[in-house]
Amino acid sequence: xxxxxxxxxxxxxxxxxxxxxxxxxxxxxxxxxxxxxxxxxxxxxxxxxxxxxxxxxxxxxxxxxxxxxxxxxxxxxxxxxxxxxxxxxxxxxxxxxxxxxxxxxxxxxxxxxxxxxxxxxxxxxxxxxxxxxxxxxxxxxxxxxxxxxxxxxxxxxxxxxxxxxxxxxxxxxxxxxxxxxxxxxxxxxxxxxxxxxxxxxxxxxxxxxxxxxxxxxxxxxxxxxxxxxxxxxxxxxxxxxxxxxxxxxxxxxxxxxxxxxxxxxxxxxxxxxxxxxxxxxxxxxxxxxxxxxxxxxxxxxxxxxxxxxxxxxxxxxxxxxxxxxxxxxxxxxxxxxxxxxxxx
Length: 344
Hints:
By secondary structure, this protein is mainly α. Helix content is 76%, strand content 1%. It has a domain at 55-278. It has helices at 2-25, 30-41, 47-70, 77-94, 99-128, 132-152, 183-200, 202-212, 214-219, 224-248, 262-272, 277-301, 306-343, and strands at 176-177, 180-181. Helix 3 (47-70) runs parallel beside helix 7 and helix 12 (277-301) packs across helix 13 (306-343). It starts with a helix and ends with a helix.
């Protein structure tokens, strides 16, 4: 675990170094730019916002990490997030219960929406042996068009100036204490549950084993087909939960482009974390810091916030492409250190 973390740290530092070179070429001060980036996102008044922004990043990252670690190449997080958001919104429009019942109900509906959408891809694989790599990507487009139709016609708010639904019932809004949004607590609970499943349960062991060697798992008596469907449903539910929280934590309605790039950023986070659950949480927070800080960075230093998007992509490229090299390098250095200790 320590070596994995060190590899990622080196990759991030190299990416920041390249970013500094780009800023120098463009005539900006990289030291001041990076300072303003972190000072803005980690300021006491901004930390709650940074934490809230990390919620969909971490949840979609967990979705992708569980899938990649277990074998399925589920790239349907954008569509699953949208379907989860839509189902939670519909529930909030037509159901009104006390908050203690309403909020859990909307969260369950969000997970159900995401799981149903990933379940379509799982069934296509099970029945027709269609690759989930293709079907989940295609289902993203269908979900995008379908939700856009839904908020333009059956659930469109009358007299609105752009596509959106009416506000959901206020009893379904996530509680906010000061600037802290309780959606962060839901995300942390989901993280603990996923970590426990993947690292402390028999099912998680079978999933990880299947991800490493499907044939060996099958020969060892693991029900690979059943586990495949379970993994697809769980990862869809996580992405759907992200969508539901985006709605009920604010703006409390489904609006056009509500999914933003959360899901694709989550996939990038899973790639950088190498599907490690704890590293997914850490990088989810880190990417949130970058995205939140980019706004203040642009206001104070005039460096375009699009630079952070480039920086994120460079981090992914360097960490993923250099992972094998860095791990080999660190292994050699550790072996040399042990040899010196033995000879001494």
